[in-house]
Specification:
This protein is mostly beta strands. Helix content is 9%, strand content 36%. The chain is built from six helices and 33 strands. It has helices at 8-18, 31-34, 37-58, 280-284, 403-406, 473-476, and strands at 20-23, 74-76, 78-84, 92-98, 101-106, 109-111, 117-120, 129-134, 143-149, 155-165, 168-177, 190-195, 203-209, 219-224, 230-235, 243-244, 261-265, 273-278, 303-306, 312-316, 322-326, 334-338, 349-355, 360-365, 383-387, 395-400, 420-424, 427-431, 437-441, 458-463, 485-492, 510-516, 520-526. A five-stranded antiparallel β-sheet has the order 2-30-29-28-27, with no helix packed on it. Strands 3-33-32-31 form a four-stranded antiparallel β-sheet, with no helix packed on it. It is globular and about 55 Å long. Mean pLDDT is 86; it is low at 1-26 and 63-70.
């Protein structure tokens, strides 16, 4: 398409796409100004579900509760090992596995259209990151919750990563405002760290507040840099949204004028330090592509994926594509290149995982807009495989889509959208909301060089049973009565296996952990 194609008028247009007509604390808050993209989607689906239920009731039809039993699950080359509903707490977010324990985050938000009701923000004993012990020898026999990592009131802790630092195990999570306005500076937002060397007795050891007036840290990954330091590669979405009422010199949602990417030194977990930031407005001169599809936005930095040496980070920047930065000097991120979407594609770069050995980037688009238009392809978001360093621009080699994501007509309830990829050897595991967890083989990442749309072969999948949101009635309609798999991670059954990693040819020796937003933690294994 272009290399820094933005002229002054185009910059103004890009900013207008994301400008919000609120910003000062005294102004009226709305769902559009307060909520992130997925939250707005599930809230819209919630209201549609309530209207549908009302219509059924008016016609004298029963509103059925969805079944929730392992026998109702669907699978190919996978079997259920264990299931923990996490006390029917609901609002489950991402999952991590570390040395025999699973860590499951939690999401939530405030519905500003309903008088600032905080009914979608978990609180009390239901809130926090659940820690579940998984016996490596017999996980079906011993899979029980041992503790909870507590985040502050009125916040959510969606994303969590656990890593070993010497003799200690450290958990780090992104914290977002959940039960109030993002302009409320009394509500913490940023990252929190815990010592989980004894997972049954976690101890909070550090915090970093990312400041007003974003919601906070949405996603993060952790990697040890070649300089010996440990960093959280974090994103604070919408930092560069223009905001009326934001005082100079910022004029953006982040009051310090920072970009959506934040590099945070957590080598001393008791004293995390933000060492740099990067954003398309401040550092690239403007969006790296035009807004696309029904959620046109080239200024939304959603996810960050570091290379194994920590010197490169790949940012999922919605319609600006997947942006690579050189962070060999962590205090000075430098732009390297970015991927481009075609003019008829919907964009929505959400997350990725990088194959260091092959130089391939596996990316997921979170496009909830199935309908498309005359100018935009139809279907939900899907996975793409990029030869990232080919020529002067990344080259798309192939894709992976589920049949439901390509269905030409609406499927009713459910979200058949790719979410988060996880690479094991040449197999890519993808959490796919209502399509569960899908596994595709990329042993041949370019099956047909004549087209970039060739679909990788599917080798396994697991779709948990449908389950209704288990919390109180006013919250049950937030998600449809369909599977809602948020995250997936794969870990060896024995800590010493393959150096703590899983390989494709060891699939049977690994456990696959997935988090369902309603029904909790599922553990499955490959049978092929």
């Amino acid at each position: 398409m272009r290399r820094f194609w933005i002229a002054a008028a185009a910059i103004a247009l890009g900013l207008a796409l994301v400008a919000v007509a609120v910003g000062a604390a005294q102004q009226t808050r709305t769902n559009r100004s307060e909520l992130l993209k997925t939250e707005r989607h599930v809230l819209k689906a919630h209201k549609q579900a309530l209207r549908a239920a009302a219509r059924r009731k008016a016609r004298g039809l029963r509103v059925a509760r969805a079944p929730s039993s392992p026998r109702d699950a669907r699978a190919l080359n996978m079997e259920v090992v264990a299931h923990n509903p996490l006390g029917d707490r609901g609002f489950n977010a991402d999952v991590w596995a570390h040395e025999g324990y699973a860590y499951i985050g939690q999401w939530g938000f405030t519905d500003w259209a309903q008088g600032s009701k905080q009914r979608f923000c978990p609180s009390g004993e239901r809130a926090g990151i659940a820690v579940v012990e998984v016996d490596a020898v017999d996980p079906a026999n011993v899979t029980h919750r041992v503790s909870t990592l507590r985040n502050p009131p009125l916040t959510s802790a969606e994303d969590v990563v656990v890593f070993s630092q010497g003799a200690r195990d450290i958990a780090v999570s992104g914290i977002q405002v959940c039960g109030g306005s993002r302009a409320n500076t009394d509500i913490f937002r940023g990252i929190m760290l815990w010592d989980v060397t004894n997972p049954a007795v976690p101890v909070e050891i550090g915090r970093l507040d990312t400041g007003c007036c974003t919601r906070g840290v949405h996603e993060l990954e952790v990697e040890q840099h070649t300089n010996g330091h440990w960093y959280a590669y974090a994103t604070v979405p919408a930092s560069e949204y223009a905001e009326e009422g934001s005082p100079p010199p910022s004029l953006y949602r982040d009051r310090l004028g920072r970009g959506d990417f934040r590099m945070i030194d957590i080598t001393n977990p008791s004293s995390p330090v933000e060492v740099s930031d990067w954003g398309v407005i401040h550092d690239a001169g403007g969006p790296l592509g035009p807004g696309l599809g029904c959620d046109a936005d080239p200024v939304y930095g959603h996810g960050a994926e570091p290379s194994e040496d920590g010197e490169t980070v790949f940012l999922a920047y919605w319609d600006s594509g997947f942006v690579a930065l050189d962070v060999s000097n962590p205090s000075n991120p430098t732009y390297l290149r970015d991927s481009d979407y075609e003019a008829n594609e919907d964009g929505d770069a959400h997350s990725s995982m990088y194959d260091d050995d092959r130089g391939l980037l596996f990316s997921a688009d979170e496009d909830f807009c199935k309908g498309g238009s005359k100018e935009t392809e139809r279907g939900y978001g899907y996975v793409r495989v990029w030869d990232y360093w080919a020529g002067t621009k990344p080259v798309q080699l192939s894709t992976f889509r589920t049949p439901n994501s390509m269905a030409p007509t609406a499927l009713g309830a459910g979200d058949y959208v790719s979410h988060n990829p996880w690479l094991v050897g040449t197999d890519v595991y993808v959490s796919w909301y209502s399509d569960g967890v899908r596994v595709a083989s990329s042993a041949n990442p370019d099956p047909n060089p004549a087209t970039s749309e060739e679909i990788l072969p599917e080798v396994a999948y697991f779709v948990p049973p449908a389950s209704q949101n288990p919390v109180k009635p006013s919250q049950r309609g937030v998600l449809s009565q369909t599977p809602q798999v948020w995250g997936v991670v794969v870990a060896p059954t024995a800590d010493a296996a393959n150096g703590g990693r899983c390989a494709t040819d060891q699939a049977g020796e690994c456990l696959v952990y997935l988090s369902d937003m309603n029904s909790g933690l599922w553990i499955v294994r490959r049978t092929d």
